[in-house]
Specification:
Blueprint (H helix, E strand, L loop, with lengths): L5 H15 L24 E6 L4 E5 L5 E2 L4 H13 L20 H5 L10 H11 L5 H16 L5 E2 L1 H10 L1 H13 L6 H12 L1 E3 L1 H7 L1 H4 L14 H14 L5 H7 L4 E3 L4 E6 L3 E6 L10 H14 L7
Antiparallel strand pairs: 1-2, 1-8, 3-5, 4-5, 6-7, 7-8
The structure holds glutamine.
The site of glutamine (GLN) has 11 residues, from loops.
C-alpha cells in the first residue's frame, strides 16, 4: 500500500468523522468520577500529527477533555527518565487481563502491580515521582513535562475533576493502602493519590495529546522542537507496553482490531502511535465494558485500515 498523502489523511479522518456521526453518543460516559458525568456524550474529536508536524483535525479536536489514564504513559516516560530500568523492580510489565481498578492480583503478587498502566501500577509510578518532591512540586513537574512534549504552555490540570476524584476515590485509596502495607509505596497514601488524581485530571485536546505523543512515533525524538525525549530503544519499549497493557483487559482486542500501541482513559480519549508515521488522538466519551472509548476504537480501526498503518506488517 502506498503511504497516505496529507490530502488523503485529511480526507480519511473527515470521512471517519462523518461516517461515525450517526453513532455519536454510543457507550456509557464514566460517572464514578461525578465531574466526568457532565461531559456531553455527543463529542467526538480526532487528530493525526505526522512526523513532519503536519496536523489533521476533525470534529472537536481542539476541545480539551480529561485525559485520565492516558497520563499513565506520560508519567511512566518521566519515571523511566529518572530511574531507568530500576523502576521495574517496583512494577511489572505483563498484561493484567483484569479491570483497570482491580485489586485481585495484588495480594497474590505481593503488592507488586502487573504493569504501569493499571491504576495500581500507575500509583506506584507516581510514588516514585514523589521522591525528593512535595506533592505540589511533583504535579508541577508532570505538567511541565507534558507542556514540553506538546510544545504548548496552555495545558492545565482541571481542578474540578481532580477534586471530584479525590472525593470519590475509595477504590484507588484501597489499592494504595494495600500496596502501602506491602511497602510498595514509600510516601503517604494521600500524597501519592493527590499527585495521581491531578495527572489523571490533565485537560488536553486531541491536537495537544497527539502532539505530546509524537516522540513515541519518532524513535524518541521530539519532531516539534528537534530535541530528544527518550532513546529509540525506550520509545519502542513504551510502545510495547501500550500495545500489551494500554487497554487493560481489552488490550488484545485493541491490538487485533487496530494493530497499533494505544493508551486509553475513562475520559473517552485514546492516544495511538503509528511508529515512523504519526501520533493519533481520538476522543469520544462513551465507554465500552472495559472502560475504553467505544467509538474511539472504531475510529482508530478505520484509520488503521485506510492508511495501512500497523505494527504487524503493511
Ligand atoms: N483516574 C481514573 C481512576 O483512577 C483513571 C482510570 C482510567 O482512565 N482508566 O480511576
Amino acid at each position: 500500500m502506498r503511504d497516505a498523502t496529507p490530502t488523503d489523511l485529511q480526507a480519511i479522518i473527515e470521512d471517519i468523522h462523518a461516517e461515525l456521526a450517526p453513532r455519536f453518543g454510543e457507550g456509557k460516559v464514566a460517572d464514578y468520577i461525578p465531574q466526568l458525568a457532565h461531559v456531553d456524550p455527543q463529542r467526538f474529536g480526532l487528530a493525526v500529527v505526522t512526523l513532519d508536524g503536519q496536523t489533521h483535525l476533525a470534529g472537536d479536536a481542539e476541545m480539551p477533555f480529561s485525559i485520565q489514564s492516558i497520563s499513565k504513559a506520560l508519567v511512566l516516560t518521566l519515571a523511566l527518565g529518572r530511574y531507568g530500568e530500576a523502576i521495574w523492580k517496583r512494577v511489572g510489565r505483563e498484561p493484567s487481563g483484569s479491570a483497570f481498578n482491580s485489586i485481585v492480583q495484588l495480594e497474590h503478587e505481593h503488592g507488586i502491580p502487573r504493569n504501569p498502566f493499571i491504576n495500581a501500577g500507575a500509583i506506584v509510578v507516581t510514588d516514585a515521582l514523589l521522591a525528593g518532591h512535595t506533592p505540589r512540586e511533583a504535579i508541577a513537574e508532570v505538567v511541565r513535562f507534558v507542556r514540553f512534549l506538546a510544545d504548548d504552555e496552555d495545558i492545565l490540570v482541571d481542578k474540578a475533576v481532580a477534586r471530584s476524584e479525590e472525593a470519590t476515590g475509595d477504590r484507588n485509596r484501597a489499592l494504595a493502602h494495600f500496596m502501602h502495607s506491602f511497602g510498595t509505596l514509600r510516601h503517604p497514601v494521600e500524597h501519592v493519590l493527590g499527585v495521581y488524581f491531578h495527572h489523571c485530571a490533565l485537560a488536553m485536546s486531541c491536537r495537544q495529546l497527539a502532539r505530546a505523543g509524537l516522540f513515541l512515533a519518532a524513535n524518541g525524538r521530539h519532531p516539534l522542537t528537534g530535541g530528544s525525549v527518550v532513546s529509540a530503544a525506550r520509545a519502542r519499549r513504551i510502545n510495547a507496553l501500550m500495545l500489551t497493557c494500554g487497554h487493560y483487559d481489552g488490550s488484545g482486542d485493541f491490538a487485533y482490531r487496530v494493530g497499533l500501541p494505544g493508551k486509553s482513559g475513562v475520559g473517552g480519549g485514546i492516544l495511538a502511535i503509528a511508529p515512523g508515521r504519526a501520533s493519533i488522538a481520538v476522543w469520544s466519551p462513551g465507554l465500552n465494558a472495559n472502560g475504553n472509548s467505544a467509538l474511539g476504537s472504531v475510529a482508530l480501526e478505520r484509520l488503521a485500515q485506510r492508511t495501512g498503518w500497523s505494527v504487524f506488517g503493511s
